[in-house]
Every structure is written in structure tokens, then in C-alpha cells.
Amino acid sequence: MAKKKIIVGMSTLSEIRDKGGIYVDKTRFIDYLENNAGTSVPVFLRPRRFGKSLTASVLHSYYDISEKDQFEKNFKGTWIYDHRTPLASSYYVIHFDFSNVASDPAQMNRSFIISVAASISNFTDKYPEQSLAREELEPSLYKNATELLTKFLTKFSGNVGAGEYLYVIIDEYDHFANEILSKDKEAFKDITSTAEGHEGLIKQFYAQLKAYYRGNRNGGIDRFFITGVSSVSLDSVTSGFNIATNISSELDFGSMIGFTHDELSVVIDESVDFSLLPNNITKSQIIQIMEENFDGYSFNRYSNEKLFNSNLCLDYLRKMLSIKTIPDLNEISLNDNTSKLRGMLNLCEDYVREEIVRAMFNKRPIVTELPDKMNLNSTNYFDKSQIVSLLYHLGYLTIDTDTSREEGVTSFVIPNKVYEKLFLDYCRLSMGYSADAYKDLSSMYEESADITPLMEIITEQIETKLNPQSLGKFTEMALQLICDSIINNSRKRQLNSYIEFYTGKGFADVFVKNIYPNGHYFLLELKYLHKKDDSKSAVEGKLAEAREEIERYLEGTVLKEKVGNHPLDCYAIVFVGSECRLCQKIC
């Protein structure tokens, strides 16, 4: 049977089905939204690249009167085709997509108007009698997007008949606001301000939508569906749009966006022809890579299954089928960067940031409850629960369901290796370190398994890459970061490094896997002393600590499973300043 195509970046259901693309059927959630959400104004939040836009498109196709004749083509073979609800094909749907609104505060107002005008223009194409005339859509006619929206809603409400209503879809409602927040907190406060006489652009826009919602009065809007990443923008406009209900953490909607393990397995079966790939590439290998890098998300402490970031999975599979080999994960775009993470972490005070960064680095669960509201207009800094909530919504953290259920409190951890890498890059950036790529570590993955070049490169990097101020604050954590960066960016990429690797009996500083079939694996326990603390007894004390930790790690079942039949070389390593004072093989 012919394999289905993997189409990345195409966010409409009709296009995917027309071109024979993969579509994971999530249409049962349409019924859930109507009957189980408990609201006509649901807000659904998920991290970037999770497939929110496709979900918005599916709802658009399902409810829009203009697509009634396309219902069979769009939905035949899906769950909802056989369980159609009474509201199917019954609304005029207007679809706003704010992912293209400029995040530069100087350009944002005009860009916002243009985006709203484009959405109304698309609506006009389908419903000219219920919409604005073409000449009324010129952006220069309006001071802000709210003026244009008001004119549209007034015209619509006056031109439709009894029982005819608008379904408003807002996709990526907070995209530009989050970008502004990560760069300029005061600019964010300005656009979300609810102060009388100085209402922000976003507050005005959502207040006008609320005014036309028929749940409040006899308005023309009957239902909404809103997607985004974080609740901070809507929380900050408070009364401007207090009709919305955040359903993102409801257990019934946990897997509405993202892939379950079973769904990913079906996607691979339907799209990958393994006969066209090298014999050493297997389904289990691909799933293992995806579990490490794109899996791990939980959005309710009682959830029994973790989710994959669906778009990243599809992007990875598409790349693999294109190049016919295992792709370099660095080529899979997350559309995120360390500067953005730094901007978000700067929204809390130094002591809160240090506590969270230390916990994230040491892979300790961060315990806190998600706040009901995150109104940045009422505070200058986020507290611990608020900044954790922001990192959780952005995808840097996720709920640790096992710990949360065992301890009875909500705990958060980094979900996967992709976000761990982003976080570690942030840590390296914070200490002023950037690694040179393509260092030669061939002796480690060859038969000799010699780590001497690694120690020499670490010394060279400390001496040349760090300024005296950074060296004065140097820690074992910094040593791990440098070691990990050198290994993961080495020539030929034959080695994979893992910081704070869980062995089953504690966390090893650095664990190194070798892709060669019989290549050596390495477990490195790193210790650090400043020059002022240098003494024979201090070095020996650090060696004893490392030896004791390695002996405990070797008893761990997780480590044994990961190593399998590979030789494992364990080293206790002590640096004093930039000098590798001791590198002793323990086993």
C-alpha cells in the first residue's frame, strides 16, 4: 500500500487530505469541546510546534457554513464523520491568526491592524453581504485593530438573520505578546494595560470581542476557540476578556494536541518505507530517538501517558525520508532560542532564578502549584510559581506525573533532550562560554578509548574562552557544561553526551554514548577546586568523593540497561583552576 506523505508547515485539513498527507484523527475532541468543556469560550494552550494551528483549521472546516459542501471530502473516515454534532456547518467562522503580528513595539499596532484586515478580507471572500466592503478594509483608515474589529462586528450583527451567529477562532493569540514580553517587559505592560484612560491595544481588542459575545448580551458571537502558548496575556487584560475558560489542563483534553505513543507508531507505519532506508535503521530506533528528544509532556498530574511534540516528530520523519538516513537533530527547528529563555528568566528576581536554574540543571523536580492568574500589570517580578508556570507553558518544563502523584504536590521537570539542550545553552551563555565545534575526539570512539585529548581540550577552552570574572565564579556545573559541549560538538559526531545522567542510583555528572557497535561508553565524575583551595588533601578528598559516587552508580539498573554489552570506562576527574590535576580510571 502506498505510504502517506508527511506535510510539515501546512496547517489546513483540506490541503493535507487533498495531497494525501498524514492526519492523526483527533476529531472526537470536537464533540468534547461542545459537550464537555463547560464553556463556549475555551482557551487551549500548548508549547510551540505542537499542532495548534491544525486543530484550529479542523474546527474552522467543521463549523463553517461555507464548507458544508466539502464536509464529506474533509471528514470522511474520521470519528466525527460518523458522530456529527447538531452544530456542524452552522456558523459563519472568522479565523484570526496572530503568528504574523510584528513583535517590535514600534511596528506592532500597524501589523496588528493588517493581520485583522487580512482575516476579515478572507471572511469577505465567503460572505460579502455579512462583511465589510473591500474599500473599508484599508488599514490606513484605522487607528488600531479594535476600530476595524468594531466596524466589522457592527456590520455583521446588523446583516445576519435570526439564529445566525459568528464562531471566532483566534490562533496563536499571544505569539507577538510573548515575543515582546521576552524583550521588553514595559512594552508588554503597555499593550495589555487595563488602566482607565490608558487601555492597551490588546485589552481594547478583547474587550470589544467580549462586548459582542451573546453569552453576555444579544451579540453576534456565539462561540470562540482560542489557541496560544501561555495565559499571561489574557490574565494581564483581566476584565477585558474574563469570559474565557482555560481548559488546557483538563484531563479530558490532555491529548487533543500532540501525539500519543500509539499515534506516533501509526504515523511511522503509514509514512515510512523502511525498504528505502539503510538496513540498520529500525522503527524501534526511530521511536527511541523521538522519545529522548520530542516526548515527555504531561499537562495534568493524573495523566497516564506522556505526549510527543507532533510537529517536531513529523519534521524529523520528513527529514529522514528526504536524506534517507538518521538526521542531525540540530537541523530540526524548534523556533526558539536561548535569548528568549534568558528574557523570560529575567522576569523573576535573582534568588528565584538561581533556585530554578539549579533545580533544572541538577534534574531535581521543582515543586509548586500553577497560579490561577499571571497578571504582569500588577507586579514588577514573577514569583516562583508564576515563572515556573511561564516556563511550563512555553515547553521548557512539564509536569512530572510520577513525583506529583507520589508526593501529592505538582512537580515540574525538563521534558526532553531538545529542551534540555536549550537550557544548557542558556547556562553556557550566562557564563560567557561558547564552544568551538569539531574538536577531534576520535581517540575516544576508536579502540584505544583514550580520553586524554578531552582533558586537554577542556583546559584549553577554560583558559581561552572564559574571562577572569567567569573563572572566579567557576563551578563543577560549569565544568560539566564545557565537557558536554565539547563532546556533543566534536568532529564526526560519533559521541553523545548526557549531563546529570540518571543511573538508577543517583545522577552521574557526564555519561557518554558511542555510536560505534563495539565502542566504549564513558561515565565521568567531575570535581573542581579553585586554585586558592589547592592542596594534596583537597585533591585526594575530591577523588574519594568521585570514587564513592561511581561505585554507587555502577549498581544502578538504568545505567546497566543503557550500557548493555558495550565496554564502560569510568573516570574520576579533578580540575584545579584550568588544570586537569587528576584523571583516574576507576573501572
Strand content: 5-15%
Write down the overall geometry.
globular
Radius of gyration, in angstroms, nearest whole number: 27 Å
**Main beta-sheet annotation:** 5 strands, parallel
Strand order of the largest sheet: 2-3-6-1-7
Low-confidence stretches: none
Total domain units: 4
Mean pLDDT: 91
The SS-based structural class is alpha/beta
Domain AAA-ATPase-like: 8-238
InterPro entries: AAA-ATPase-like_dom, PDDEXK_9
Protein name: PD-(D/E)XK nuclease superfamily protein
Organism: Succinivibrio dextrinosolvens
Q: How would you characterize this protein structure?
A:
The protein is an alpha/beta fold and 587 residues long. The protein folds into 4 domains: 25-253; 261-331, no CATH class; 338-431, no CATH class; 439-585, no CATH class. It is 43% helix and 13% strand. It is built from 24 helices and 15 strands. It has helices at residues 13-18, 28-35, 52-63, 71-75, 105-126, 145-159, 175-183, 185-192, 201-211, 232-237, 261-271, 283-294, 310-323, 338-345, 350-361, 384-394, 401-407, 417-430, 442-445, 452-465, 468-472, 476-488, 536-553, 557-563; strands at 42-45, 92-97, 166-171, 194-195, 198-199, 221-228, 245-246, 366-367, 398-399, 411-413, 495-502, 507-514, 521-529, 568-576, 579-585. The strands form 4 sheets. A 5-stranded parallel β-sheet has the order 2-3-6-1-7. The protein has a 5-stranded mixed β-sheet with strand order 11-12-13-14-15, sandwiched between helices. A hairpin with a 6-residue loop joins strand 12 and strand 13 (521-529). Helix 5 runs parallel beside helix 6 (145-159), helix 6 (145-159) runs parallel beside helix 9 and helix 7 (175-183) crosses helix 8 (185-192). It is globular, with a radius of gyration of 27 Å. It starts with 12 loop residues before the first helix and ends with a strand. Residues 8-238 form the AAA-ATPase-like domain.
